[in-house]
Structures are given as C-alpha cells and as structure tokens.
Amino acid sequence: MVGFRAGDVPPTATVKFIGAGTAACIADLFTFPLDTAKVRLQIQGETKSPANTGHGPVKYRGVFGTISTMVRVEGPRSLYSGLVAGLQRQMSFASVRIGLYDSVKQFYTKGSDHVGIGSRLMAGCTTGAMAVAMAQPTDVVKVRFQAQISAGANKRYHGTMDAYRTIAKEEGFRGLWKGTGPNITRNAIVNCTELVTYDLIKDALLKSSLMTDDLPCHFTSAFGAGFCTTVIASPVDVVKTRYMNSAPGQYSSALNCAVAMLAKEGPKAFYKGFMPSFLRLGSWNVVMFVTYEQLKRALMAARHNWVTPL
Asked: In the structure, what pLDDT confidence band is assigned to residue 50 with cuts at 50, 70 and 90?
C-alpha cells in the first residue's frame, strides 16, 4: 500500500475552518504587542478619547519607543491588554475569512479549474464581510482595551466581560457594532489584498518551479502579502481604529472621522502606526499562514488515520 501524504488530498472545509482559527490565535500570541503599539500610535493626536480619561497625554515615538514607553509607564502586561477579546476575535474572524475563502472561491468559479482574479477578489470581499458581521463586538472591545491607559485607578474597563457589559449599557447594543462600516471596508481590502496576493505569489512560485509547496514558499508568499496589505489598507485601518475608540458623539460617522483627521493632522495621519502595522501584519501573516498550511496537513493526516481501518 502506498503511504499517505496529507498534501495528496485537498483539505476539507472543516479542516480549513478549524486550522485557520487556531493558526490565527497562535499568530496573535506572537504579534499582539505590535498590534497594541499600532493602536496607540494611530489614536495619538486625538483631542479626546474615552480610553485616556483622567490621564495626561502620553507621547509615543516609533514602534519600539511606544513599546518601551508602555512597559515603563504601565508595565509589560499592558502590551497584551485586550488579548482575550483578540483571541475571541481571531477564532471567529479568521475561521470565517480564511477558512471559508477556498470554498467561496470555488462557488464563484462554479467548479471550473480556472480561477481568475475576479473570483479571488469576490471571494475575499465576501468572506471578509461575513467575518466582520460575526466578530465586530470582539474587535470593538479589543481596540478599546488596547487604547486604554492601564496605569492608575481610572481604568474604564476591568475585564473582557465587563467591557461588553459597559459598552452595551452606556452606548446601547449598537455600541458593540460601532465602526462596522469602516471595518467591513477595511477587511474587504485586507482580505482581498492579503489572501489574493498570498494566493497569487504562491501560485507564481509554484508554477515557475522556483519553490515547492513547503515552508520557504509559504514564508515568502505570506511576507509579500503582508507588505502589500499594509500599504493599501493603512488609511482605512487608522480611521477604523479612531472611530471605534471614539467617545459617543465625537464623530458623526466614519467619513466625518476621516475628514476631521485630514483637517487637523494632514494626510500623514492616515499612515500613523505604519511601521508597527507592517511589522505586525508581516510577522502575523508569516506565523499564521505557515502554521495554517502545516495544521491543514496534520489535520488531514489525523483524519485519514481516524477513518482508515488498521
């Protein structure tokens, strides 16, 4: 009997779903401090913010300057503020947007072997929007925690469940879905750019025989996808973060938030936190996609061993 290789059989939708959520959580554990630094830099310059009530302004300079300032002022644990909500977000969010991507792509191609750029973009937009619809409350809580100054006794939120309750009580149920519009826009862009560029780079490397479908290929594809995604999605990401973290009534809409940023801080404001965003997204993509590819193979091998009699 010929030995079974996990790569010989396409992974099932369940394997992709579970693998994507697990891989995204692992990637978040490694890169969360960079994400927190990105949020702090993105909201810097706002005149008022619910997260900083009762504290003087803290000036952050660069990625590592932000991280060192947070560790010095708030302690090392501040870098992982909002991690619980972040992991909740990834398990629901990544499972849908990445785990269902191939299935939705096949739906748009109607079973054809030829997969055009249009089908890839449509699949990316669809799964990105579906993921936001499911995971928006977890994203709101994650951003609020990351923006909250942890030092002192005036913390607004004292735990993940307390944050959900406080937001729902003070801002209504809709508060948990604040910023859904810009988040759908941001994640449609991120999903399309990230998954499509990863798909295209990987296909190009395999078709040109420059690499085989293994670790170096997954690493190169993921890093390239991270850079492209950061460049394209950064302006929408900054507006999303500002709007989700804003006090009630501070901005009338996401568009109003973007116009206010442009008027007060200039065009450069839309690329605040670019370096931590790229470092985070690049490293997150590498850890996530490499882990995802390996998990798919491991899960398919385990599934084969389970269903195949000895």
From this structure: low
> What is the pLDDT, as a whole number, of residue 2?
45
Give the DSSP letter string of 118-180: HHHHHHHHHHHHHHHHHHHHHHHHHHHHHHS--SSS--S-SSHHHHHHHHHHHH-GGGGGTTH
Determine the Cα–Cα distance for residues 40 and 99; give it in Å rounded to an integer. Answer: 30
Outline where 75-116 has alpha helix (H): 83-97, 101-109
For 303, residues 6+ apart whose C-beta sits below 8 A from its C-beta are: 12, 15
Is there a contact between 57 and 83 (Cβ–Cβ < 8 Å)?
A: no
Express each pLDDT in 98-146 by its tens digit: 888 888 888 888 767 777 788 888 888 888 888 888 899 999 999 999 9
State phi, psi for 235 to the nearest 5 degrees. -60, -45
CB-neighbour burial class of residue 286 (10 A; exposed 0-12, middle 13-18, buried 19+) = buried
Query: Which helix H or strand E contains 232, and what residues bound it?
Result: helix 215-245
pTM for the predicted model, two decimal places: 0.75
Exposure on the CB side of residue 129, measured as CA atoms within 13 A: 9
Across residues 58-76, what is the average pLDDT? 88
Q: What is the DSSP letter of 50?
A: G
User: What is the C-alpha to C-alpha distance for residues 26 and 289, in angstroms, rounded to an integer?
Assistant: 11
Q: Cβ distance 99 to 18 under 8 Å?
A: yes
Task: Output the CA torsion sign for 90, 96, 102, 108.
Answer: negative
Q: What does residue 154 show for φ and ψ, rounded to 5 degrees?
A: -95, 25
- Sequence-distant (6+) residues with CB within 8 A of 249 are none
What is the phi/psi pair of residue 246, to 5°? Answer: -70, 155
User: What are the CA-CA distances from residue 119 to residues 9, 17, 96, 159, 199 (Å)?
Assistant: 23, 20, 17, 41, 12
Percentage, residues of the chain above pLDDT 70: 89
